[in-house]
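Lab notebook: predicted structure, single chain.

Context: the supervisor wants predicted structures on file for every construct in the current expression panel, including those that have not yet been purified. This is the next one on the list. No modifications to the sequence; it matches the entry in the shared construct table.
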Amino acid sequence: MENNEKRSIERSRRFELIRQTIMFALVIVLLVVSVTFFAGFYSRQNLLLIKQNVKRTAIECYSIEGIYPPDIDYIVDNYSFYYDSDKYFIFYETFASNVMPTIEVYERK
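Prediction complete. Output recorded below exactly as produced.
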């Protein structure tokens, strides 16, 4: 009888250890998935914010000077606009000084 009780206790301990290991693995997987999701969300939000700020600054320049800025360097030099040029690329194309430029922001890899 004692052997059966010991085996039963051993089995329940093994089962508990396996259950705890599986729970730990699930928590780790959930944590990794969450971090990956929020990192992607943060990156997309940054791209959107940079694009909105470039557009707003170009409109501000147009309202002050009567022309849209000729390039992104003009905005950086004259309107206190800052961005991480090592991390982001801003496509800024002007057609005419009185037409809103095409603005796209890309993340460098």
